[in-house]
Amino acid sequence: MRVDDVRDASGNGPAGDSRDDRALPYLIDAVSDYAIYMLDAQGCVTSWNTGARRLKGYTAREIRGRHFSQFFTPEDRASGAPEQLLQAAGRDGRVETQGWQVRKDGSRFWALGTINAVLDETGRLIGYAHVTRDMTVQRQAVDALAQSERRFRLLVEGVVDYAIFMLDPNGVVTNWNRGAERIKGYAADEIVGRHFSNFYTPEDRAAGVPARALETALRDGRFDAEGWRLRKDGSRFWASVVIDPIHDEDGRLVGFAKVTRDVTERRAAEERLAASERQFRTLVSGVVDYAIFMLDPNGVVSNWNAGAQHIKGYAADEIVGRHFSAFYTDDDRAAGLPARALKTAAEQGRYDAEGWRQRKDGALFWASVIIDAIRDEDGALIGFAKITRDITEKRQAQLDLQRARDQLAQSQKMEALGKLTGGVAHDFNNLLMVVSGQAQLLRRKVGDDPRAIRALDAIEAAAQRGEDLTRHLLTFSRRQRLTPTATSLSDRAHGLRELISASLPASIDLDIALPDSLWTVTVDPSEFELAVLNLAVNARDAMPGGGRLSLTAENRTCDGAGPEALAGDFVAFTVADTGSGIAPDILPKIFDPFFTTKDVDKGTGLGLSQVFGFARQSGGLVSVDTELGAGTRFTLYLPRAEAGATQRAEQDDGPAPLAGSARILLVEDNPDVADVAARMLEELGHEVVVAGGGQAGLKALAEGAAVDLVFSDIVMAGEIDGLDMARRIRAAHPDCPILLATGYSEAAERIGDEFPILRKPYRLPELNRALAGLLKPKVVSLASARKARSPKS
C-alpha cells in the first residue's frame, strides 16, 4: 500500500486536501463492525477507529503508542506470532490471519484480519494498515456444526454389528466402513473401486443374483434377503442384507446404501463409516429398515434417521430432545426398563433385547433392540447408539411354529394315550364281561336270598363303574365308538332335566333354557347326555352351599379366527354355575385324565376328560371361562347337522321279545369270555356252537355246521381276526347274519355300518335286542330248520 492512499486523522496527506480526501478519516472512523487502525514500522498503534474501540475495548488515547501484540493471547506472544505476521506483511505486502485475540477486559474473541504493508513514495516501509473483524459467532456456528457432525459420525461408528457402505449406480464400492472391513476382511484400499459382486458365491454370480438385487432395490425401493456371502479369505458366512437406493435432492439415483450383518454367529461388531459427511448422511438417511439414532448419556434423543421415522412414526422435529422411554409401554416404563437398558449398555458396552415398543400412534410392534455405549477418545461416555428393527412378523412366525409344535406334541400324547387306552380297554372289558356276565347268570339262580342279591348288586355296580371308567378314557382319547345322529337339543330339555335333577341337592336351582330355534346338531345322544351329566356333577361339587346351575344354548357361526380355528355353524351349549370357580394354576390341567382336586373316592378325574374327548370326537370343542368366587362356564361347541339329516328315534330300553330258538356259532378265543357268552346265549334259549378263533370258526362252517347266526369277538389271536372272518363268511354265506362284539378295537373304528357291533361288557337285554334284530327276518326256529335239514324228512 502506497502512502498516497493513506490519510491521518487530521485529513492532511500528500495527495492534497480535496473534499473526498478530507471525508475519508470520518468514513473510516464511522465503521463500527471492523477495527481499522494503523501501525508504525515497529508495530505500534498510530491510529484507532470507532470499530476498533468497540471491538477491542481500548480508547484511542489508551492504545496509541502501544505495540499491537497487546491484542494477542499470551501463548501467541510467547511463540512470536505478532512479529512473524509483521515480517510476512513486510515481505509479501499483505497477510491474512485468524485466531483468538484478547480484549482490554481479558475476554477473547475469534478475529479475522488482514495486515497490509504501507510504503512511502520511495518504496520504504513506514507502517502497516490493520483491519480486524469479530467472527466469534461464525466460529461458534462452525464449531457447533463440526460437533454435530462428529456426534453423528460417532453414532454410526459406534454400531459394530453392521457393515454399512455405499455403491455407485453400477454396484461399484465407493466407500467402506470398519464394520465392513471386520465382516468381509477387505481394507478400504483393497475394495473401493471394485464391484460388490465380489462378496457373492460363484454360483450366485453365475445366476445373476447381484444384478437382480440392485434391480429389486431400484424397482421396489428396497432389497432384503439372506444368503451365503464370501470373505476376502474365501470363507463363507450367512448374511442378512438390506440394499436401499439413494437419490439426491433432484431425485437422481446416486448409488445404493448397503447394510450387511453376519448372522452366522450373531456376533456384535462395531461399525465405522469411511465416507464423506454428505455420503455418510445420505447413507444413513436412506436406510429405512433400521431405526438408527443417537441418545445423550441421559437417554434423550439427539438425532433421528429415516428408518426411525418409518418404524416409529415420529418426524425428527417431533422426537429430538425427548427421552427415548417414549417408545416403551406404560408397564415397561413403570418397571424402569429404559433406565436398566442404558445402565446395562453403559456397564457392559452393549444391550441386546427384544420386546414390545410403541409407535407414535400408540400401536405396538415387537422390536429387536441393540444399544451400544459410545465413548470418546478418553473413554468418557458421550451417549448411546441405538438400533431398532421391527420383527413383529418374524416373532409371529416363531409363535405360530411353537403353537404347531405344541399341537403336534398334544396330538402325539393323545395318540399314545389312545393306543395305551385301547389295549387296556380290550383286556379290561373282557374281564368285566366275565364278571358282569357271571353275575347276571347267578342272579337268575339265587332266588330271593337277600344276602346273595346284595352281593350280586355290589358286583354288578363295580362292573358298571369299571365300564364307565373305560368308557371315559376311550372318549377322552377319541377311541370311543360314537353313533352320531341328527339331534334336537331343545327336544331333549325335559330328559336332561330328569337326568340332572336326580344328581342335584335341593339347595341348587336348575335352570334350563333351550329355545326351539336351536339348530339340529350331529352328536351321539348318549355320550352327549353323559358329558352334560359330568359337567353338572362338577358344578354341583363346586357349590357345596348351594347355588344356581344353568343350561343354555345359542346358534353361533365361527369364522376360524379363534385360537382353535373353529369354522362353521355350531350350537354353543353352556353349563354355568355360581360356584367357587377354578384357580389359574389348576385350569390348564382340568381336562387331563385322572387329574382331580376332589377327595379320594369322590372323583375319578375322568369326567372332564370324557367331556373333552366327546367334544373333539364330535367335531367341535369345549371352552371354559372361570373366575375365582364367581363361578364357571363350560361351553360345548357342537356341529350343526347337515341339511336333510333326520333324527334318530330314541332306542327302547325295554326287553326285546325273544327271537325264538336259534343255532348260533360263537367265536371267541378267550375261554372265560366264551364260557360266559355261551351260557348267556343258552339263557336266552339258543343253541350254541363254540369256536376258539377265527380260523376255527371258518373251519366249522366249511365242515357243514348249520347255524342261524354268527356271534364273534373282533380281537382274536392268530392270522384271522373277527373282522376278517366276518368278511369271508359274508362272501361265502351272504344270508347268514353276523354280530360282532368288542371291548375296544381300532378295527371297529373302521367298520362303520358294515357289521353291527355289540360293546363289551354287554348285558342279557342288550344281547337279546341285538340278536332279535338280526334273527327277526329269518323267523325260522331251530326245530323247523333241523326238520328241513333232516335226511328222514
Keywords:
disordered N terminus; 26 strands; alpha+beta; single chain; 793 residues; five-stranded antiparallel beta sheet; elongated
Could you characterize what this model shows?
- This protein has about 800 residues and is an alpha+beta fold.
- The protein is about 40% helix and about 25% strand.
- The protein is built from 26 helices and 26 strands.
- The strands form six sheets. Strands 2-1-5-4-3 form a five-stranded antiparallel β-sheet, with helices on both faces.
- A hairpin with a 4-residue loop joins strand 1 and strand 2 (about 45-50).
- The termini are far apart.
- The relative contact order is 0.05.
- Residues about 1-15, about 265-275, about 650-655 and about 780-793 have low confidence and may be disordered.
Q: Name the strands of the widest sheet in spatial order.
A: 2-1-5-4-3
Beta-strand percentage? Answer: 15-25%
**What is the alpha-carbon Rg in Å?**
49 Å
Helical amount among residues, as a percent range?
Answer: 25-40%
Coarse morphology: elongated
**Structural class category:** alpha+beta
Q: What is the CA-CA span between the terminal residues?
A: 162 Å
Please report the number of helical segments.
26
Q: Largest sheet, described in full?
A: 5 strands, antiparallel
Q: Could you tell me the mean pLDDT? A: 82
Poorly predicted runs: 2-17, 267-276, 649-657, 779-793
| Number of E strands | 26
State the gist of this model.
With 793 residues, the protein is of the alpha+beta class. It is built from 26 helices and 26 strands. The strands form six sheets. Strands 2-1-5-4-3 form a five-stranded antiparallel beta sheet, with helices on both faces.
